[in-house]
Amino acid sequence: MEIDLARVDGTVFPALVAVHAVPGNDGEPTYVTGTAIDITEKVRAEQEVRQLNVDLEARVAERTGEVVRLHEHLLEAKKSAALGSLVAGMAHELNTPVGVSLTASSLLAQKTMEYEMHTRTVSSPSRSSSRT
Length: 132
Hints:
By secondary structure, this protein is of the alpha+beta class. The protein contains one helix and three strands. It has two domains: 1-38, Complement Module, domain 1 (Ribbon); 40-119. It has a three-stranded antiparallel beta sheet with strand order 1-2-3, with helices on one face. Strand 2 (12-23) and strand 3 form a beta hairpin. The radius of gyration is 50 Å and the shape is rod-shaped.
């Protein structure tokens, strides 16, 4: 059993004590023997291990929190990337018909101008020849 003992100088130390009763010829205990082992270093090491476990648990909790935050950040980045891809796809789907419409309207405007120029060119000489 572990108990605290006192040294001659009065300092107290933890000890592992074993006691054994030695029987006489009649089977009754005639005396008791015992040993005490100073376990100061063992107790100190156990306390150190307990403190290291507390520190380790705190570090694990901290790192777990970091992992959770990074995971959340990664999910947000994935969501943003998916949204960007969706917006790019929608922009492409909208820009294609708009581009075709713009090209068609430009072509129509150009052809209209060419037609008007052709019409003026054709109609202008006949007017001047009728005046003379």
